[in-house]
Amino acid sequence: MVVLGRITAPYGVQGWLRLHPFGDDPERWQEIERWWLGREENDFSGWRDYPLQAMRLHGKGWVVKLKGVDDRSGAESLVGLYFGAPRDALPVLSGKLEHGEYYWSDLIGLSVVNLGNEPLGRVANLLESGAHAVLVVTEEGSSGEKIERLLPFVAQVVKEVDVPAGLMRVDWEKDW
């Protein structure tokens, strides 16, 4: 399952929902026939599928209508849920991404090293801050404590992402 975004609010009284996408091409998601919604971003056991009825751009954001969600109270019950789809249902050239493209879920678990080849840990999660995504990088310290670093997911910091090699190279010092 690839998490694509989050339901942020109801829109109107007929069951429409506002979306907060975690990607840069949500228009393509109209091609996904069934959307999956759930409370946990990393545990898909409680997720439920909904057939997509309609999706459209509204102002600077997206709104979506799912079959079976027909009024405002139904829409309100879905606020805060993550939405996603199985990787093989995503509308990307037969499942192949272009060079330099990846899903957030592909980044989870990558080893992170800085430009001096010092290990900083592994990507544990990504957060959406509004301005840009933030990488949550964790490692175990020398005395067993968990060290967590928050790195902006921007080109000035993230210099290389090599998903097949399981590596991300960043311009970030170990003691920051």
Mean pLDDT: 89
Number of domains: 2
The CATH class of the largest domain is Mainly Beta
Give the count of helical stretches.
2
Task: Explain what this protein looks like in three dimensions.
- With 176 residues, the chain is mostly beta strands.
- The protein has helices at residues 72-76, 104-107; strands spanning 2-11, 16-21, 34-38, 48-58, 61-66, 82-85, 111-114, 119-128, 133-140, 146-152, 158-162, 167-170.
- Strands 1-2-5-4-3-6 form a six-stranded antiparallel barrel. It has a six-stranded mixed sheet with strand order 10-9-8-7-12-11, with no helix packed on it.
- A hairpin with a 5-residue loop joins β9 and β10.
- The protein is elongated, with a radius of gyration of 18 Å.
What layout of secondary structure does this protein have?
Elements (H helix, E strand, L loop, with lengths): L1 E10 L4 E6 L12 E5 L9 E11 L2 E6 L5 H5 L5 E4 L18 H4 L3 E4 L4 E10 L4 E8 L5 E7 L5 E5 L4 E4 L6
Parallel strand pairs: 7-12
Antiparallel strand pairs: 1-2, 1-6, 2-5, 3-4, 3-6, 4-5, 7-8, 8-9, 9-10, 11-12
Relevant terms:
176 residues; mainly beta; Elongation Factor Tu (Ef-tu), domain 3; six-stranded mixed beta sheet; 12 strands; elongated
Write a brief structural summary.
It contains two helices and twelve strands, in the order E-E-E-E-E-H-E-H-E-E-E-E-E-E. It has 176 residues and is mainly β.
